[in-house]
Specification:
single chain; two-stranded antiparallel ribbon; Rossmann fold; globular; about 35% helix
Length: about 120
């Protein structure tokens, strides 16, 4: 069983890469899709990440391969998933995407700059 954690700034190719893996693909942005349309609500960011973590946990306890593609700019943001992997016996692979393909969610350049400044290798 495998857990892929795919990290990178918006527009780096995380989602595209994740979709090519043999795993359930999850990302917090999926929480913001309503009726097939992306409708970001910054007041629900915490809920989006909680949903992503819970959905990953539910799949992992069923023995599924899971890929999570979030920015993960800081190491602590990956910790819940690392803990899940330890508890479920999943092998973890952390993949960092560094492409610059343009963000599909229209993330402001200033927001991406701030994410870049807090990036932890």
């Amino acid at each position: 069983m495998k857990l892929y954690l795919i990290r990178g700034l918006p527009g780096s190719g995380k989602s595209t890469y994740a979709k090519g893996l043999n795993a359930l693909h999850l990302e917090a942005d999926q929480f913001h899709v309503k009726d097939g349309k992306y409708q970001f609500d910054g007041t629900k960011t915490k809920l989006a990440h909680e949903w992503c973590q819970q959905t990953a946990w539910n799949a992992m306890v069923k023995g599924m391969n899971v890929s999570v593609s979030n920015t993960f700019t800081q190491k602590w943001e990956m910790q819940p998933y690392l803990d899940f992997a330890k508890d479920t016996g999943h092998v973890v692979e952390v993949i960092t995407m560094r492409g610059q393909y343009g963000t599909v969610h229209n993330v402001p350049v200033e927001s991406i700059r701030r994410m870049s400044e807090r990036w932890e290798d």
